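User: We ran a pulldown and think these components assemble together. Before we commit to crystallization trials, I'd like a predicted model of the whole complex to look at. Sequences follow.
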Amino acid sequence: QKEVEQDPGPLSVPEGAIVSLNCTYSNSAFQYFMWYRQYSRKGPELLMYTYSSGNKEDGRFTAQVDKSSKYISLFIRDSQPSDSATYLCAMTNTNAGKSTFGDGTTLTVKP
Amino acid sequence: GAVVSQHPSWVICKSGTSVKIECRSLDFQATTMFWYRQFPKQSLMLMATSNEGSKATYEQGVEKDKFLINHASLTLSTLTVTSAHPEDSSFYICSALMGLAANVEFGPGTRLTVL
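Assistant: Here's a predicted model for the assembly, 226 residues in total across the polymer chains.
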């Protein structure tokens, strides 16, 4: 069993839809939780990170972490065609810097 | 903002040759850099952790004699794929740690194709 499991997708939604992306994990030592966006043949770009449990909002993006359930989510409101990319969740324990990544969910937002 | 560059962005080589990939932090010092490999439609797999001035720490299953890592300065880490074979063809991505564990900047990646 993988340490980080990510809903595989792919997802295809109409422009303006709310998108929910999810990951579960098994290692209770993880304390930092990140979401990256990766366009084809490019390096990942950090979207949001959260320390421990809770919610964090940045514009149209909201990250949620539930450590008791070992479950994290990324919500995208008013999705745009430019949001079409692969989204990767990642997690790390304190100070290690080494992240464990999910397999990614490919999102397509249709105009 | 912080930028990490990689060179080359794309390389094609013959089987048996060696290829060097550079990872540079352009406007900050990175004592720790990471090297990942990504196959098509798969996630990033950590290969090794590169620390300035010391030997790299390799993940289980990664051949240290095949994937040579040198972190000679605070802004440069290199990955050399020695005696490359077609199965080494992949997307290689580096990242640099900017202090906090979650504050990592990724490079744009290098696509290696071994014929």
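The mean pLDDT of chain A is 92. That may be worth checking against your pulldown data before setting up trials.

User: Thanks, that helps.
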